[in-house]
Amino acid sequence: MSTTAKTQSRTVPAQPEPDVRGERRAVPGLAAASRARAGVELRSYFRNAQYVVFTLMLPIMLLVIFASIFDGNVEGSNVPFRQYFIAGIIAAGVMSTAFTGLAISVAMDRENGIIRRLAISPMPKGAYFIGKVVLVIITSALEAAILLAIGTAVYGLELPTELSRWLTFAWVLALGTAACALLALAFTYLIPSANAAAAVVTPPFLILQFISGVFFPFTNLPGWMQSVASVFPLKWMTQGFRSVFLPDSFAANEASGAWDLQMVAIVLTAWIVVGGLAALLTFRWRGARVK
């Protein structure tokens, strides 16, 4: 064997130089990963026109339709119908984004392989949920602001001037959003596939809208409907928002004759606990439905 051949046989193929000089990249902490995940969620949401229309625009369209159809005052009061059902439409909007939209979003993530990939990534798993919560908080607040702007500019909605009412608005919005979001995470257990998500999630949302005093005075509904609606958070969110936008004298028209804000807080907090526990028990990072 020639000297040249011996040299070639000993030649070691060139190896690519590592792009990292022997140092391991630090795993992002929960805060950094949550910020990054929230950014991804927000960009994905606003780039999906169908998703935006289904969740964000639906309550706006309902406001325009109902405000155009209904005129006059609620029977036995001097409160305009438009002033009455703005509270219900805001509450329905919160449920639309935090429950319906979030449940569909998680079902799509599950089927598109996003949840499985995130499960094997070094990202803290809590960042996924925090990103979703940030998304629903921002979109719910944005939706409420748009509804109030349209209601004020187009339909003469009178906004409260007392700070205490806006504080009530803030905590009802926060508790309602949290309750609906956690229930959505748990509800995804009942969704067999992304294609079936809207069909599974929409019926309970529609039913609760019509029996929770969103579009009609709650006390005009049959007693059994009021009893069923009183179990779920939408009725209490709607009642809490009514206390913000309607005069105190209108509280006499509530089923109990009062705003019952303490009960609003208790029921919404209870649903946060129930929804959180249910989500912990039912949410899966792996399994037959997680593609």
Report on the architecture of this protein.
- This protein has 291 residues and is mainly alpha-helical.
- The protein has helices at 3-9, 30-47, 49-69, 81-111, 114-120, 125-155, 163-187, 197-211, 223-229, 233-245, 261-282.
- The longest helix is centred in the first third of the chain and has 31 residues, at 81-111.
- Mean pLDDT is 84; it is low at 1-20.
Keywords for this entry:
291 residues, mainly alpha, disordered N terminus
Put the structure in a nutshell.
Helices cover 68% and strands 0% of the residues.
SSE order and pairing:
Elements: H1 3-9, H2 30-47, H3 49-69, H4 81-111, H5 114-120, H6 125-155, H7 163-187, H8 197-211, H9 223-229, H10 233-245, H11 261-282
User: How many runs of DSSP E, i.e. beta strands?
Assistant: 0
Distinct helical segment count: 11
Mean pLDDT: 84
Strand/helix succession: HHHHHHHHHHH
Unreliable sequence segments? 1-20
Sheet with most strands: none
Distance between the termini: 57 Å
Proportion of β residues? Answer: under 5%
Helicity range? 55-70%
Shape: elongated
Output the structural class.
mainly alpha
Radius of gyration: 25 Å
